[in-house]
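Let's do one together. I've listed all components of the complex below, 704 residues spread over two lines.
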Amino acid sequence: MTYTDTLISREPGMAAAMKRQFLTVILLLFSSSAFSQTMNAEQIIEQSQRAFYYAAEDMQAKITMQLIDADGGTRKRVMTMLRRDTTDGGEQKYFIYFHEPGDVRRMTFMVWKDPVKEDQRWIFIPAVDLVRRIAADDKRSSFVGSDFTYEDISGRDVADDSHTLLREETLADRKAYVVESIPKEMVEYSKRISWIDKQTLLPLKETYYDAQDELYRIFTADKIKEVDGWPTVTQRTMKNLKSGHRTEVVFDTIAYDVGLADKDFSERRMRRPPRAWIE
Amino acid sequence: MTGQTNGKVRRAHPTLMLVLALIAGPALSADIETHGFLLLNYAGRTTDNRPPQSDSDFLLGEERLRLDVSVWADEIEASARFKGDLFHDAVDGETGLDVREAYVDYATDNVDLRLGRQIATWGVGDLLFINDVFPKDWVSFFSGRPLEYLKIGVDGARVRFNGEVINADFMLIPFFTPDALPTPGRFFLYDPLASVTNRSEIKPASTYDNSELALRLYRRAGEFDVAAYLYKGFWRSPGMRPDDLIAATQIELFYPELRVYGASAQGNAFGGVLSLEAGYYDSRDDRDGNDPAIANAQSRFLIGYQRQLKQDLTLGVQYYAEIMQDYAQYKQSLPAGFASQRRSRDTVTLRLEQLLMHQTLRLSLFTFFSPADNDYLIQPKVSYQFSDELSATVGANLFGGKKETTFLGQFDKNDNLYLATRFDF
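Okay, and this is what the predicted structure of the assembly comes out as:
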């Protein structure tokens, strides 16, 4: 893990700076063990979600996803992802443009994420110039055939699981909270254990257990880097132990607070994203 | 469906040369991207019957080389694109260039402009079209070409305005393009005047008055995407006018005037996506419904619902109805010997899609069934992605019906099995 230890560097705008200060305060509060006792498991998961899915006000990233089967056969998905937070820790908008492979090139995908109501999702199919809504109640479905689910990409509602702080331990030289999360409604996993970095609150590792309580799926944050002052997981892996299939995700480029507007998450942009987004 | 046209291949229109020149010009200094694919596509009739005008069991036998070239300008938000297929068609023994799209784009803060040949798809129906007034290639659809070939580009200009309150797409299409309908050379079909082979086709001339106009106004209303549509142009399947109703010796195929007024809504509901659409087809050249050569005015409605049944399994159902205006006049003016349509024709569709093996294997079923006409089309399909570049699809088009005179029933003897292999680069 390569993590540079300064939390504050560079200046990407006032709002972001304040948000970061807030985060820093939170981190200072909870990095002392006296206070950590008072942050319950649910708060840890919530803060972790904020650190992982809500860094800065917006984000633009170019992402390469490698889908690797048990025999080593590899497929590749290259995409641009844009994200903007409508409210911190709450509503968000996502935009994804596919560069590769060829059969989905120029396809775009938009999600308006709402932690309370059902998400809204649209897809643009360039070959027939069609934008249509798609059903959004399949959050546990695979994202583009990878080992990541839609929820892994944009976050799972904290209230969907019951969380328990099991212990604190050191994982790869980093102090971490170990939290157990049990889904309230039946999904394909029965239990998730998360190692949450005490310093950055980013998830370092997650293990998923099936109905028979067997470990079958592992998430690892393989590289954490500070980008524009925000600790960021720039390389991650999700591995399915049963199928032997795994997905490696690398953020080739990432920028925060690029100035995306609410109206950028529109049908217009799905049909024709500006060149600066998709180069 | 009252006649046939032979619009299989679309060659470059002179205006496209302009687009090509615009692509070639800045290409030297700007950002250029070239992609494409090789498509091998074959379809064979499985009914042991051949239409009288055909000497082959193949409905389709072609190789296509897609070239897709895009150029982006450096300083301004402008780009150009050429997307065309070099093809060899073994059924007709033909080789050529099928220009799918060729356009230039220019965008400002609130306005996107597109000029040239372009594909457009409007409305919320799944393979059912009310406010999508743009040309379609039913030959491709019925004989196993990939779905994108169902849509034919139009030659014109599109202005997209993006406002705070409302968005608008406005299309001006000076050059008329009809639907590509099945021809007796490849398909069994119902033609009450089949014996009359002396036929001429008259397309609307490219005049100022004949320019097609299509407008879509759209916005979000609460949780729904809503739109209103307006179209002024022509029916895309021709009317047939024989020189003599009793003993015809020649037939004129022509495209009557049409206006369409419609609306649609789509949004999350009942754990899935609900779609609603309606339109009124105003047949301007036959407003009384007395002319048997011209389709009567009609109202069209659609309600659709799509949801995820479980992981990677999607269900879609639709109910669609078409209600003819002036039905009494239609019945009265219908020539003797012509099969009559019902006043109201409805269709139920079902879509089931299952993704397996990390979405490399796709099982899909789409069915049309018309309770009114008692006919159907069943389209099962299996696609497999061997790699990011190589995929293969095997599927079938299974037609049937009680009568051979209804829209899908007429294709009963055209059941076919197809194969499409695609290599992307």
